[in-house]
UniProtKB/TrEMBL annotation:
<dbReference type="GO" id="GO:0008270">
    <property type="term" value="F:zinc ion binding"/>
</dbReference>
<dbReference type="GO" id="GO:0016787">
    <property type="term" value="F:hydrolase activity"/>
</dbReference>
<feature type="region of interest" description="Disordered">
    <location>
        <begin position="273"/>
        <end position="292"/>
    </location>
</feature>
<dbReference type="InterPro" id="IPR040546">
    <property type="entry name" value="Rege-1_UBA-like"/>
</dbReference>
<comment type="similarity">
    <text>Belongs to the ZC3H12 family.</text>
</comment>
<feature type="region of interest" description="Disordered">
    <location>
        <begin position="50"/>
        <end position="79"/>
    </location>
</feature>
<protein>
    <submittedName>
        <fullName>Putative ribonuclease ZC3H12C</fullName>
    </submittedName>
</protein>
<keyword id="KW-0378">Hydrolase</keyword>
<dbReference type="GO" id="GO:0003729">
    <property type="term" value="F:mRNA binding"/>
</dbReference>
<feature type="compositionally biased region" description="Polar residues">
    <location>
        <begin position="50"/>
        <end position="73"/>
    </location>
</feature>
<dbReference type="InterPro" id="IPR021869">
    <property type="entry name" value="RNase_Zc3h12_NYN"/>
</dbReference>
<dbReference type="InterPro" id="IPR000571">
    <property type="entry name" value="Znf_CCCH"/>
</dbReference>
<keyword id="KW-0863">Zinc-finger</keyword>
<dbReference type="Pfam" id="PF11977">
    <property type="entry name" value="RNase_Zc3h12a"/>
</dbReference>
<keyword id="KW-0255">Endonuclease</keyword>
<keyword id="KW-0540">Nuclease</keyword>
<dbReference type="Pfam" id="PF18039">
    <property type="entry name" value="UBA_6"/>
</dbReference>
């Protein structure tokens, strides 16, 4: 055994490899047989090591790619999505009174509306509330969850419109004007169930803006629900309405009831999915082309 071991060690093999071969062939095996098995064992070990190293490097590359995907592209997508959404200007008084069934100024309603837009990815959300709503609640002007107003003000989401007292009389600035003016200048969306008819009559551009950018809503208990079709059945979807550059769907038309048997060609007002973007000539146009 010692002779065979020394012979294998001189050739660069380890004692563990020699023992493996002797366990397989027996202690009486010839040196040539042992050498043959050592060569096979050495080749196999190198191959396994190469495969292991390759697998390790592949795993490292995959993990690095995955980490890059999880860091940069995702952040870029979130940033792009946030930047592609319009600024939101919320009529705080309208929303709070709506949530309070027109009896209570419910600050929780404002919070529900703000959270809805933040969850959608909007970064620019502003709420206007008259400053006198910071005063203590009175029987003729009940306010609930008033601490929410302070919290939203600290987060730079809520803005109090100015008011002051002159000889015991409260002088209040018109908060609706703040709302419409900021939404118009920032090219944003007004969230309110008010039509702002008095302001729409002041300036033609404000009237057009209010008609096109007013987002109404409903409260179902504590759920803020804007409509899926804010400008009516034939207008844009809610997602497109809230975006700066609307994502145009592939088709808005109703599928043609005649399908492939339609004879109107490109004059057909219905949608033909089988045509793709290629215009198709009518049967009459095809006959004219053939006769020529």
């Amino acid at each position: 055994y010692q002779t065979k071991l020394e012979f294998a060690l001189k050739l660069g093999y380890s004692e563990e490899q020699v023992q493996l071969v002797l366990n397989k062939l027996g202690t009486d095996a010839l040196i040539n047989d042992i050498l043959g098995e050592l060569v096979k064992l050495g080749n196999k070990t190198e191959t396994d090591q190469t495969v292991t190293n390759a697998n390790t490097s592949v795993m490292r590359e995959a993990s690095s790619i995955e980490s890059q995907r999880s860091e940069s592209p995702l952040q870029e997508d979130v940033t792009e999505d946030g930047d592609s959404l319009r600024p939101i200007v919320i009529d705080g008084s309208n929303v709070a009174m709506s949530h309070g069934n027109k009896e209570v100024f419910s600050c929780r309603g404002i919070k529900l509306a703000v959270d809805w837009f933040l969850e959608k990815g909007h970064k620019d959300v502003t709420v206007f509330v008259p400053a006198w709503r910071k005063e203590q609640s009175r029987p003729d002007a009940l306010i609930t969850d008033q601490e929410i107003l302070r919290k939203l003000e600290k987060e730079k989401i809520l803005v109090f419109t100015p008011s002051r007292r002159v000889q015991g009389r409260r002088v209040v600035c018109y908060d609706d004007r703040f709302i419409v003016k900021l939404a118009f200048e920032s090219d944003g969306i007004i969230v309110s169930n008010d039509n702002y008819r008095d302001l729409a009559n002041e300036k033609p551009e404000w009237k057009k803006f209010i008609d096109e950018r007013l987002l109404m809503y409903s409260f179902v208990n504590d759920k803020f629900m804007p409509p899926d079709d804010p400008l009516g059945r034939h207008g844009p979807s809610l997602d497109n309405f809230l975006r700066k550059k609307p994502i145009v769907p592939e088709h808005k038309k109703q599928p043609c009831p005649y399908g492939k048997k339609c004879t109107y060609g490109h004059k057909c007002k219905y949608y033909h999915p089988e045509r793709g973007n290629q215009p198709q000539r009518s049967v009459a146009d095809e006959l004219r082309a053939m006769s020529r």
